Amino acid sequence: MSIASQPEKDHFHGNSKIGNIFELACVYLLESNKYRRPGPSTKKAIVMKKANTDKEKSRIPRFASSVLRFLTPDENRASITGDYEEMFDELARRKGPLAARAWYNAQVFKSFPLLAAGLISGRFYMLMTDLKLAIRNLLKSKGYSILNVAGLALGMAVGFLMLLFVFQETSFDRFHEKRDRIFRFSNAVAVEGRQMNLLGLPGPLGPLLKETFPEVANATRLRSRGDLSVAQGEEKIELRQTIYAEPDFFKIFTARVLQGDREKMLEPPYSLVLTDESAKRLFGSEDPVGKIVMVNQKDPYTVTGVIKKFPPNSHLQFDALVSLATRQKANGDVDIWMGFNFPTYLELRPGASIADLIPKFQKVLEDNLPAAIKALNVKTELGLTPLPRIHLYSQSENEFIPPGNPAYIRILTLISFFILLLAGINFVTLSTARAGRRAKEIGIRKVLGAERRRLIAQFLGESVMLSLISLTAAIGLIYLLLPVFNRLIAQNLSFQPFQGIFVLLGLLGLALAVGLLAGIYPALVLSGFSPQSTLKSQTGAGRKRGILRGGLVTFQYVVSIALICCTLIVHEQLRFLRNYDLGYDKDQLAAIPLVVGPNAERPEVLKSEVLKIPGVERAVLCDSVPARDNNETIFRFEGVAAGDRQVLPRVKTDGDYLSTLGLTLAAGRDFDKTRPADRTAVLLNETLVRKLGWTEPLGKTIHMTDTDDKMGFTETPLTVIGVVKDFNFESLHTPLRGQVILNQDKDFSTLLVKLRANAIQETMTRLGRVWKSLEPNRPFTYVFLSENFDRLYRTDQRLGQVFIFFTLLALFVAGLGLFGLAAFTAERRTKEIGIRKVLGASISDIIGLLTRDFVRFVLLANLIAWPVAYVAMKSWTRSFAYRAEFNPLLFAGAGAAALLLAVLTVGLRTVKTSTANPVKSLRYE
Amino acid sequence: MELLTRLEEAILIAVLRLADDAYGVAVNLEVSRMFGKSYTLGALYFALDQLVRKEYLGKRMGDSTAQRGGKSKTYYRVTPEGKSALDAVRAHQERLWKTVPQTTEG
After folding, report:
1. What ranges make up the beta strands (E) of A640-784?
2. Which ipTM was obtained for this model?
3. How far A76 CA lies from chain B's nearest CA (Å)?
4. What share of chain A is helix, strand, coil (3-state, %, to 5)?
5. Cβ of A44 and B41 within 8 Å?
6. How confident is the model at residue A440 (pLDDT cuts 50, 70, 90)?
7. pLDDT digit string (tens) for A162-207?
8. Which of A151, A170, A273, A681 could cysteine-pair with A721, CB 3.0–4.6 Å?
């Protein structure tokens, strides 16, 4: 039907149609620069021109018309705007241009809401159909979808748990407002060649620096007070990890004061500031301020305030603060320059230059150190650590809480990244493997005119949707795994996605990113199928693609096998440590801390009473426990060539050390209680003698520098009477040091008891009773040496557990991938298998055929994984002075295990295909 | 099954009446005439789209006319499903009215 012949309906007054055509032709010919067919706009322009020549000023209001164009969806736009214009023309003709324009404007704006609604509902509807389509597609291949979701969800969950951990560790102390201006002193002390990284400084240094330097806005000192037992009436609780603090604490750190006067609460001695948690434990809902509590059953303290507990990502963790003035009253060492006891924090003014200030601070310290310390040739080197870096990068011994380990964080991040990568790889391989099945569908759609872009969008949409489903599964997994994970890495992470908008957005972003990234390759591949090839035969079996897939599988297994090797090696090392002969019997040894103070019972009395118990074999009073304590002091050795003085660990004992610990002598004799001269005798261990180069150690003199009662130093000459066979009193991480064993009658802190092997529990009960009879007001506590020992390797044990966790994870994910691939390959080769069976192949032949390919990949993975694991583990074991040998069997075992798993995985899947009826499979197409 | 709204019913009837000539403007005028008040085009298009989505109406593109500045019109026709929807509504109405007692008040 041409323009001319279309019969016009009644609401149009037809103009001469010939005229129309003539106009059209003229304008068309005249506009010679337009060689294309006139588009709608040109035609409109033509009509406009025509309309103008007929009626003046009959233009459609421009603004309204553009609004209309905006509100209509693409497909309908032409006809809808055309309809409006038609009515406009009609009205213009009948009632004049102004009326028409008024009508047009009115119509457009009245239609605004519904047109907009139509637009939205149209888009919505399209989204819904796409969604339904995507879901139907996913459900069609349920098996694959589940595999994909499982693997991806696992990867995401693990990745996110890691992120939680890394986030927490790197965000320590950020809640303090002045965090960028707060610094803490580090104190590198060198004494006679021994380097120590101390945390404490002399008390007066902080306030002096604040007075002297205008750049120092505030200074405060802290000190760890340890655990306190606090009683209020009938209620008795333990306050763990309390800290001494002074009023300036609140000037530097950001703490929310809930009750009490922030300026005054830490001023008076014997004041206690509780956290809200501790206050609740002790006082319930009562107001604790002003109340008196009994601390450690002997001292009354006043509760002067309540503050909000510091969050877990703070290097200061405490149940209560004790006023520093208390320490001054009790120990008197806050205001003196003797000693490095108080960690000191500074708040610097903006613009202060640390590089300039540190040498100045250093000078102040050196000028004020007492002569006695300087005489010992002690060199101090000050540094300032920014507050946010303390947790991860502090080198100091005796930190408030165990420091974070940046290396550990890096390792964990790397491993979790790999797991996520593995899951993503699975996703990609499974999707591309699926490609074959959908080849026909794609071919047909292309024939029907689907653009490549639309197909890509659709496939990406599917993969994003899969990713989002995995996300929901991952969130569930995270909740499930969090307690296990927390226990694994000894942290207290919390996961609250619905409380922080960032977390939720982050998760969604992650899912989106994964969906897009992992879906791009399959989308490209799938949409790139040419219709001819897909409709003809099976695709997705290309040589190139097969190699890529194989490479990905190999990569997955390299990671898995490497992890298995690492796990095995770590555990081997741990076993080695547990069974290493330390030279003394760490079992059946209990350490009982002694009460120190003027009112305490004399330790000798306790010891003699304890020895009366039949279950007790021996006992010794000493001042340090192996594998836990470390007391060192300066020694000078006669006639020694290299380096006059040394700092060495020493133990003060009452003479029964060797017999209690079961140590043996290499030379000389043990302490003899009948010889008073033995009070100035010492035993050295073999390592020390060897290092000193003494061939005849017996009878030689050494000089020990120790503190005396007046806070000064004295040097005491001691005679060597024996040499002890080496025993490991420190962690096996460190090589054995020289050690000196002393014979004294005071300064003891612990009673070490050797128990008989049977009825240990009963012996401990009896010990408790003896204790109670001598010290009725103090609780009886003890620790087994084997516990201490285990604690030394806590981090390593945790590493072992972490490795197990991740290995299982990686194996699972890799297994999933392999399973999916095997399924796909088996299906693809159904016809081939059918033919082979008809030709006489047995089931085992078929299985062998199918698994052979995959076995190759796993074997290849072995070859790559072994060196990787070897290198990694070698560097880890370097941190141990005592190492287990790498057993090649371990590596082989790892490979075999992986292989076995792979064969089982593939085998399981291929069995079904192998046993299929050839008749059915040959009818497949 | 959901029943048609009055507007939807009117549209379907209008389309039936307009036969080959059922396009936007025509349907609008027809419906307006049926109800005695003019509907905005927007309201109409929304309802038309819904009906197409429910597959009661089918769409077909017509030719472009110079009169409309070269834009083609979309013509609508009632599908068999649409017809049965109309029948359902009519039957429903009849059923309802049968239950009303025939009282003749004086």
Report:
1. 645-653, 665-668, 681-685, 701-707, 713-724, 740-743, 750-755, 783-784
2. 0.81
3. 8
4. 55, 15, 30
5. no
6. low
7. 878 888 888 888 889 998 999 999 998 888 777 888 888 999 999 9
8. A681
